[in-house]
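Annual report, structural modelling task.

Input specification for the (2R)-2,3-dihydroxypropanoic acid complex:
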Amino acid sequence: MKPKLLVARPIFQSVIDSLSEKFEVTSNQSDQAWTPDAWQQAIASHDAALTTGSDPINALVLGAQPRLKIAANMAVGFNNFDVPAMTTLGVIASNTPDVLTETTADFGFALIMATARRMTESEHYLRAGLWKQWRYDMFAGAEVHGSTLGILGMGRIGQAIARRGALGFGMKVFYHNRSPLDAATENECKATYVDKETLLKTADHLVLVLPYSAASHHSIGSKEIAQMKPTATLVNIARGGIVDDAALALALKNKQIAAAGLDVFEGEPAVHPDLLTLPNVVLTPHIASSTVKTRLAMAQLAADNLVSFFATGHALTPLNQVPAKSAT
Ligand code: DGY
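The model returned the following structure:
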């Protein structure tokens, strides 16, 4: 008998087709919203789940003696998983590192550029028919090349953004992280470790790439924004909740910093209403890893984790180790 697999959200049909060779697949291709009860029941009746960052797996969802053996997240971030609870309950967790690093860094850089150079604000102006003539100061933004790039969170994606800034745009790159990188990696990224206060005070463009956890909740709030330059821009491609969105909206309104570019939001897909009305913020719907090639690679790696686990007892990119529990 094939193990029962729940695919929580729409993914590429080609990936579902190949998974169907090994699993009895239930797939939510219509993207019907899960109620908490329906989600809990669906998890209770499957051996495996292919999830996205919006699908919670925790002690409540799993229950005391879960049938589920593995949840493969189609995301590198995994704050939708309670990994310690999954470990206690014998459920493997996996994510999709590496395959999205460069694509997400490209998008981070695009958001830095769009924010600093006021691209959406000026496009709205043009589309509204307001453009009458060339003006010397029209949508004059902040310089990107040669400026100071600050990176909070220096994992793989942070490093890829650092390389783009230093090597492509001649930027001075400062970063802050739980611990400094080794000297060889720092040298390769042309990045210098500084404390958080120095990072906030010196960055012309500050980009957030740290994982979400209770410890990183509201890493950027009114106190931190107050330390930034009034000309600075802030970009969040990490996770909602790392920035206090209400505090940011107020700071943008009061021109405490120049502008922000946000791909992730507290409580997304809801967006703080004030952010929607402000001209000096570029807003995108959590699409930093979204190219066709990368999203396919993410879906394929999540699928490969499932196939590998049921074939060998080991996922390819696990987030935890659990005592052997029969895969079949
Ligand atoms: C990730 O992989 O964590 C991205 O944010 C997509 O959800």
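The chain has two domains: 4-98+292-312, 101-283.
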